[in-house]
Amino acid sequence: xxxxxxxxxxxxxxxxxxxxxxxxxxxxxxxxxxxxxxxxxxxxxxxxxxxxxxxxxxxxxxxxxxxxxxxxxxxxxxxxxxxxxxxxxxxxxxxxxxxxxxxxxxxxxxxxxxxxxxxxxxxxxxxxxxxxxxxxxxxxxxxxxxxxxxxxxxxxxxxxxxxxxxxxxxxxxxxxxxxxxxxxxxxxxxxxxxxxxxxxxxxxxxxxxxxxxxxxxxxxxxxxxxxxxxxxxxxxxxxxxxxxxxxxxxxxxxxxxxxxxxxxxxxxxxxxxxxxxxx
Length: 279
Known about the structure:
- This protein is α/β, with parallel strands linked by helices.
- The protein is built from 5 helices and 13 strands.
- It has helices at 167-170, 193-200, 202-212, 215-238, 240-278, and strands at residues 9-11, 18-19, 59-61, 68-70, 79-81, 86-90, 103-105, 110-112, 127-129, 136-137, 151-153, 158-162, 182-184.
- Mean pLDDT is 79; it is low at 36-51 and 195-207.
């Protein structure tokens, strides 16, 4: 199948295909954008192979969850639909090299593993449906870079972590992510703070709460205070130099306090006398 270098639409949905998805999909040159056109990422202009202009047939496809008929604009379609089969294993990373692919539907299978990290490099991606599988891990941050993505369905998998923050991914409804209990962040939930804190250190917080509520904490605090107090007193009592320094410090502190109080009292008295004279 990978030798079909000019293939534009691969639709094998609603069969009983089993096994894994081939790792050689990147050899489909047309879907990889190497044969029929070259994309200018700045202007999004295309230069097509003239041989495709003679293709006049039309197809009824389901690229975004709805049936659509492609006829005159079929030359723009690059689609892989393997939905509703019995495929298993991981999504091959080679699929991320199909830079001309616009629609990918792998829903209703038994796929596992993680979503390929480099899917964000497929800049022309318009539709991605991976629902009803066993895909785990986090949603790749690169998906937030798909500016043309208008349909996304990741529901009913085992995805976890935070939904990457971007205008694109937050624009989809929560139904696109439903069925992933470990997924958090808008639009699934308001934030991930409480979930992350609980998942990171539930045992630590519980242990701290129990420790501060026990009698051992108060006994330890009392013993520590008594040990520190009598330790300082013993040093002052047995060491003459420290004892002299300590009492000298107390005398100096007493003198400072006395002078400060006297000055404050005199200032208050002088102020009150001035106020009485003004009256």
